[in-house]
Amino acid sequence: MRIGTAAAVIVALALSACSKKEPNAKERYAAAALQNARELMNDPSAVKFKDVTVLPSAKCMYGSILGKNGFGAYAGYHEFVWVDGKIFIKDSDIPGEYNDYHLYINKWMDCTGEQIKLKPDQRVLIPQA
Hints:
- By secondary structure, this protein is of the alpha+beta class.
- The chain has one domain.
- 39% of the residues lie in helices and 28% in strands.
- It contains three helices and five strands.
- The termini are far apart.
């Protein structure tokens, strides 16, 4: 009886492993960019994203980010731009090196300007992460 149960579990695991789709290069880049943005925040495990557009060929992404402030409380969603390993947050009380509004606007314009040049299949849209 135990051998039959063990065999069934092994077959189920093997079939579930076969059904998983391997992420493509754009999806891997998006996952790495989101992880990097998380690591730049005060409490990486508490960070949430929504309405994120990742542009791998432009090496940038933008959307909304929810993180904790210096007091450990959520500060509400804020618009952000991530460019080459640096995060720029619009109107944020979350401490950070890149919370300058003008810098945010410049980076956002650079990133979204690149989006106009790209075809829809060159983008990765993430509704919530």
